[in-house]
Amino acid sequence: MDQADSVNSDPVVTTDGEGRVQRWRNCIGFWLLGLCNNFGYVVMLSAANDILKKQESQNTTVHALTNVEMMNSSNSSRYDCNPVSTAAVLLADILPTLIIKLTAPFYIHKVPYGFRVLVCFITAVVSFLMVSFSTTVLMSLFGVVFASVSAGLGELSFLSLSVFFNRNVLNGWGSGTGAAGVGGALLYSVFTQAGLTPRISLMIMLFVPGILAVSYFFLLAFPASFPQWSRSEVTHSSSAVENVQERRPLIEEVADTEHQEEQEGKRIRPLSFTDKLKIMKGLGKFIVPLGLVYFAEYYINQGLMELLYFPNSRLSHPEQYRWYQTLYQIGVFFSRTSLFFFKIRKILLFCLLQCVNAVLLSVAVYYQFLPNPWVVFIIVFYEGLLGGAAYVNTFYFISKETADREREFAMAAASVGDSLGIALSAAASFPVHHYFCSL
User: Can you spell out the DSSP letters for 66-119?
Assistant: First the structure.
């Protein structure tokens, strides 16, 4: 554990005002990065029902055909079903992310962080524009794919980036990603509830990718030798060592000079492919529970939420769906912010409780025994609490328990857990949607 804590362990308390200012800047910077990185992903899921149900098109023939198909689908089932499950949007939103997270940890270290952020910015802008101006479901799904590329590359890169800073930036990152859920889902719900079209709502949100770029390039206080536009293992190693030296008191620096030189020599050796596979195997105790939590979570969100419709409510079906997503994201925000106050090591507990939620709501969809959407509002809020807590605590303890030279790779590699669970849940949601809509 001593070795694992040496790089981004908690800093020694100091009266240095500049050090405190930099730590606050970095924590706020990572909060904004988390907010902006996940914002588009959340908005696309909140708009899933609208993307599938209504496209602003000049072609009245296509419009008429689509409306007839939806009426036939609704009339032939006891549920108000779309012809295609919202899991189609989820697949477009997660598959590119999953591919990036499965492969990128083995080569992304060769790409400078500055270039990665530029790619995230460009793909996020393209995604909002494509979905805003789309006239077909297929075009919208391509826009969602760009949002997925931006979010996947961003999450992987910013989690890896956190190893260059104090571990407290993970608190800011986790809270920011939770705020993205609330901000994205709530803004979209409020805009559309106020009468704005999905197109106008998405166009308004184009400022978010700009905040991401500004936060990274102008707000973060990087170590002096941080490799912004060039990448090599040696550069990263020396930067990591310098980061350690900046956080240690002077007496300890003098006493441990020989130890640090020895550690620097160890870090210079890059991780081999075999090393990375070994690290991935060791991360299984984190990746598997996190994946199961997210499988149950998104099975609910994209496989069941659309079917939890209460026709006697004053809220329409699309409005009910949007507020399910919004309240779920509020739960995620609260739990992802909880890392500032307490940590929970038992990720398996979150996994068990989330699976219970999935079974409960599956039975509720089949037997339709829930009285009104307000009961579902409470359940999905609780579901968000479990999912957010599992996410932030997983990455906190990976950061705390991983050896120095393995930490940057481990943080990136472990991010595959939630995406894998989401992708599998999307695949499972298609037959579930088909089964219930055929009743």
Answer: HHHHHHHHHHTSSS---SS-THHHHHHHHHHHHHHHHHGGGTGGGS-HHHHHHH
